Amino acid sequence: xxxxxxxxxxxxxxxxxxxxxxxxxxxxxxxxxxxxxxxxxxxxxxxxxxxxxxxxxxxxxxxxxxxxxxxxxxxxxxxxxxxxxxxxxxxxxxxxxxxxxxxxxxxxxxxxxxxxxxxxxxxxxxxxxxxxxxxxxxxxxxxxxxxxxxxxxxxxxxxxxxxxxxxxxxxxxxxxxxxxxxxxxxxxxxxxxxxxxxxxxxx
Length: 203
Known about the structure:
Strand content: 5-15%
Number of strands: 5
Low-confidence stretches: none
CATH superfamily: P-loop containing nucleotide triphosphate hydrolases
Number of domains: 1
Order of helices and strands: EHEHHHEHHHEHHEH
Number of helices: 10
CATH architecture: 3-Layer(aba) Sandwich
Largest sheet: 5 strands, parallel
Structural class: alpha/beta
Helix content: 40-55%
CATH class: Alpha Beta
């Protein structure tokens, strides 16, 4: 198989993406891949602004948030230090926790989805994932997981919002199904069962 894949994990909050990114990276390293894992929003200055808005340290209109994500994603792809395109050119398989499907789902709760898709079109033209892995959990399971061990919730972390994002993911995946490679994985099972399903998808 190709040694420098680009794989994006998607799902509503609490779906277990971060855990599965880590497990898949470990598996691919064992298979001889050079692997680079990353996430969005990034830890760049743009990404830090996004997190400040999420954590109520800074004000930001939903249109501003959507535009910041589009900018952060372009920087994620194009920066010359550890950008995704640079890593792929160096032979890495890159696995990201969220990519533009997240923007399509989360931002279109507030902003027209076609605008969000257009705002991210340059990123899509630069690099589409070889595979988008959507970990499917219900909004109710999402909230149960988010509440465990948390003192404070971020802006988007309410049941009402998770329901809307879940619906928007469905809408977005239907809209782009002819352009994107998307696989749905049932996320309410054990971590090991999910990881095994994902391994089968890759190898």
